[in-house]
Amino acid sequence: MTTRMFGQSITRREDPRLVTGAGAYLDDLAPGVLAAAFVRSPHAHARIRDIDVAGTLDVPGVVAVWTHEDLPGAAAERLPMLLPHPSISSPHTGFALARDHVNHVGEPVAMVVAENRYIAEDACGRIEVDYELLPPVVGLPAAREAARAVHDETPDNVAAHHVQTVGDAAAAIDSAPHVLDLELEIERSACIPMEGKGVIARWNSEDRTMVVHSSTQTSTGLRAALAAKLGLALTDIEVITPDVGGAFGVKINHPWPEEVAVACAARALSTTVKWTEDRREHFISSAHERGQLQRVRVGFDDSGRIRGLDVQFWHDNGAYLPYGVICPLNTSTHVLGPYLVPDYRVEFWSMYTNTVIVTPYRGAGRPQGVYIMERTMDAIAERLGMDRTEVRMNNFVREFPHPLGVIMQDGAEGVLDSGDYVASMDKLRALVGWEDFVEFREQARAEGRRVGIGVACYVESTGAGPYEGGHIEVETSGRVNVFTGLTTQGQAHATVFAQIVADELGVPIDQVHVTTGDTRKMAYSVGTWGSRGAVMSGNAVHLAARKVKEKALAIAGDNLEVDPGDLEIVDGTVRVKGDPSASMPLSAVSVLSNPLRYAFDESAKAATQFARPPAPGAPPVTPGRAPGLEDQDFFSPVRSTFASGMHAAIVETDPDTADIRILRYCVVHDCGPMINPLVVEGQVHGGVAQGVGGALYERMAYDDMGQLLNASFMDFLMPFASEVPHIETDHLETPSPLNPLGIKGAGEAGTIPGTAVIAAAIEDAEGIPIRRMPISPSELWQLRRETADAPAPAAR
Amino acid sequence: MSSEPTSTVRLSVNGVDRTVDVPDRQLLSDALRHTLGLTGTHVGCEHGVCGACTVQLDGRPVRSCLMFAASAEGHEITTVEGLGNGPDDPGPVQQAFIDCHGLQCGFCTPGFVTTIDAYVRENPDPSEEEAREAISGNLCRCTGYQNIVRSVCRAAELVPEREEDA
Amino acid sequence: MKPAPFTLHRPRTLAAALELLAELGPDAKVLAGGQSLVPVLNMRLAAPAHLVDITALPDVDRVESSGAGVTVGALATHRAVEHDAGAHEHQPLLRQALTHVAHPAIRNRGTVVGSLAHADPNGEMPMILALTEGHVRAVSSRGEREIPAAELFVGPLETCLEPDEILVSATFGAAGAGARTGFDELARRSGDYALAGVGMVLATDGDGAAETITGLSAGFVSVTDLPERLVLDEHVAGTPTAEAREVAEAVAAAVREHIDPIDDIHATADYRRHLAGVIARRTFTRLARTNDRPRTQEAHA
């Protein structure tokens, strides 16, 4: 038996291409085609009086200029509200090109198509837009105050309002021995993948079809959306996702305005048009996330056990709501974490502001929920004078499945399907040396240094439906092609899906070739988001491989004249169990699976009618069995599976400069059985780096007029290697009962507790409650000054 | 057609002498990608911070987005394509990234490869701390850098091995 | 983010470059390493009709050091100066500060003289020119002049240079016998512009326990409008180095009093003022207590 590939830390099969410069990202494709550039609103809130494009006409190399009035049919209508939800009272979406209003700096107003991007930008500079300025609504306080409205039809700026209750939180809190109130705040950040968005639309005027390449997280979603916008039959448009330079959520929204406008232009001009988003565009016209104001009231007993929890929060959704309320829903349902909360009430308001739209960013609202609960846990421990890990232990859910009583973002009730939070905490305490920290703190203090430790726990609903599919075909060469519809942005799908298929089909992994995100190959798919790739497509290709294997055994059984149940496939060869001499290679089975009339090569000759006549009276293709050694299957789970984990951080804060340094960062992570531990570790590392960025460096600095002041890598402080700590990891592998492979999602986990754990560690170092994140040295210094009493490090 | 000022530039790219006509304002990054078809050099910010576009200019890493192609006259440029022989025969720094899972989406990787290739030639035995410092001018949003640090140390092993073999 | 059109000139001689600048006037900008200028062009915050690329000029990349100072040619890169042994021997502040200038890939292309012409009060090079009372040599078709640091910088990102002038070299003052230099800064990320930075030159007399401070001057990054030199002798002169700690707070207070930081998205003015004081105190005490040979000691807290 060959080594099982599942669980092996094999190196990635996509890497040789990517490390040698042979990757094919969006802007690498279609060299020399026409380039689009956009005129974007310089104002956060304004009425468009007039757009004068006359100045572009004498710019050599300009091909076309588009404004809203040039958009045909449905393309001129508002962009879709992708995720309707009963809580949404006031759904507003924008246009592909602004019609009469602009609601954030960066909103596209006009598009120039030219010979190249340089010239397109020249022409953009010559388009004059006459704006009547309106006062902007910037920030949640202004949105809540509602002295001004983003959208006239929504005077209170409330896009959505939602309440969920489990039991009677108010009564439980009132009757609890202890009650605490917390006001919390978390600022905006954003995904900021290294490659921005981009789209290439190619119109074939001969057969009136379109092929679109997009740096998207959903080929199938974009295909359907563009078909609707362009009035095309679905069969007349295909969407292919090439190599994608990171996404982290921002590329799941669709169609982006630019995708619609560029597709329209390509059809109208009967040509190919490319738009490659530049960095400034990405900052001011893609999407942000995270900004919330939060209010917590918790009742608990003497051992720190929560009796009741009441949470209210306000979520800044920016100018429009194309992606619905996924983020605040996730916040509201992930507050509960790994804890038993008998009575819970959560209420949120999703608010319009004149800023860039808000769509999921790695974690998608979950980091804010964890921040709420973990700040609360620390406050409880502080109040009771208890060890912070002990308070958490006292609250852990210990029996599974554990229904949460709240409805998740996929419409199903959340149920903690499996986990071992006590074991995770034991591992984390051992990894970070929780007990030894007291001594370390004393040593540091003797040297005039200030250090602190923090811990944060989370659960994450992963692998949401509705479904993904896998289609597998075995070529007559023995090459195995695996198609799944979701897209890839660095998650090693070409490796881990191949591992799964190699195991199930019994073939060497180097025979397995995975294609993702191509609607020509797999038209049924949802997309890559919410830590679902491995769970959804992993299980789908596993099921598909099983079907192909069954088909292979049946065909081989016919030919070897043995019961398929007595056959196995090892190393690409079908053989009789216990009698390796009776065997045939899978390539031969593939030949047999497809009876041929024409012999175009040697292997085809073996499948022709005289070489292999059917049994007398039987048709060449066995009834019920389609030609070709291929099949597909779909995986559709009843509900999401919950991954979990715990992070601990040790920080040092400079007593004078208030500089904050992370000395150690420890992760215990449980995503069930790991398909490829190397890849899981990588996901954790990357997630932690984004968590650290969100806690200490990144924010979206808007001024009162809605101008984003840090729309560059100079001022948006994405961490370099020098800012990210070495990450120490340990793993649990608690299987999920919800899917055949027992796996859980791993993509977002590393990011989710980042803000909470760093806040906890700084609070511990400083003895000052940390209620607002991210935090900079300047802000920490200010906090120290505002704290009336001397900021002696907290004694624990 | 546009009528903007152009220059004829002679330069060496990955050891091959090239002569190209470029608009005066064309960035070296765009000339490499669009005029010479070397799309391995990626563009991540066009203001010199992210490092994705880093190429070697006469052996030293520079940002190709902060240089005009016309200014490269007479210089030797090495891109990520020039530091290996393609997917079937990656160079030592490229192999180090494969070995250490030093990349995820791969978009920033070419800038790291060109930076690290020059670094390990000057610093053949970096400590982990030095390796981290060496890559602290390039942004990566996927990996958290930990496996890129490992890749630097691995590259420092592989580069001399390959040169001995050669 | 692509630059607006321009004509790029790449003269092969200084005379040709000067002729071009004289002819083109204010429509032209000098391009050397371009590490500050090109981002501005890419963002279309400036759109000169002509660039005069001086990187093909011969013989202006030299670094020459002596007791009189360190003279850096127009095309000497940050890296070249950082790695130049003579420059380090005669003015260690250069290497001490250069390691904080962005990242190696920027220093490989960026030039020290270009940083001076850019005149960014957040930059380390202008600070050192001011602190060491250096000067630059500006040449035009009209002639040549030597401009002291104190006259060169007239505002944030503003120099007294005329559009037809090229800075062909800069001379940083030497550290001098018995002087110790140090630089430190705090930036949000490594390589970022500093929240605050302080360079210092400490002069001493005598040896061992008898060593006495004779003078102290400081220059600042990111907390003043202009690169400048602050003389702090009155707070320290005559103090034995062994007792430097006693006067360190006076040094910090004088720094806080002198500087004029502003609020921005990364830090408040109050914080920057406080931070500059802390860095000044730490740098001063570190310089005073060091027993290393003055010219080789590195500056890290």
What does this structure look like?
The complex is a heterotrimer of chains A (796), B (166) and C (301). With 796 residues, chain A is an alpha+beta fold. Chain A has three domains: 32-134 and 197-244 and 251-285, Aldehyde Oxidoreductase, domain 3; 376-464 and 638-786, Aldehyde oxidase/xanthine dehydrogenase, molybdopterin binding domain (Aldehyde Oxidoreductase, domain 4); 465-635, Aldehyde oxidase/xanthine dehydrogenase, molybdopterin binding domain (Aldehyde Oxidoreductase, domain 4), CATH 3.30.365. Chain A is 27% helix and 25% strand. Chain A is built from 19 helices and 29 strands. In chain A, strands 3-5-1-12-9-10-11 form a seven-stranded mixed beta sheet. In chain A, a hairpin with a 6-residue loop joins strand 26 (641-653) and strand 27 (660-670). With 166 residues, chain B is α+β, with helices and mostly antiparallel strands. Chain B folds into two domains: 6-82, Roll (Ubiquitin-like (UB roll)); 84-165, DNA polymerase, domain 1 (Orthogonal Bundle), CATH 1.10.150. Chain B has five helices and five strands, in the order E-E-H-E-E-E-H-H-H-H. Chain B has helices spanning 28-35, 92-99, 109-122, 128-134, 146-165; strands at 6-13, 16-23, 54-57, 60-63, 76-78. In chain B, a hairpin with a 2-residue loop joins strand 1 and strand 2 (16-23). Chain B starts with 5 loop residues before the first strand and ends with a helix. The mean pLDDT of chain B is 96. Chain C has helices spanning 14-24, 37-42, 78-82, 85-90, 93-98, 104-107, 112-118, 124-131, 149-152, 233-236, 244-258, 269-289, and strands at residues 7-9, 28-31, 50-53, 63-66, 69-73, 135-140, 143-148, 153-155, 158-159, 166-172, 179-187, 194-205, 212-221, 230-231. In chain C, 32% of the residues lie in helices and 26% in strands. Chain C starts with 6 loop residues before the first strand and ends in a 12-residue tail after the last helix. Chain C folds into two domains: 1-176, Uridine Diphospho-n-acetylenolpyruvylglucosamine Reductase, domain 3 (2-Layer Sandwich); 179-296, CO dehydrogenase flavoprotein, C-terminal domain (Enolase-like, domain 1). The longest helix of chain C is centred in the last third of the chain and has 21 residues, at 269-289. In chain C, helix 7 (112-118) packs across helix 8 and helix 11 packs antiparallel against helix 12. With 301 residues, chain C is α+β, with helices and mostly antiparallel strands.
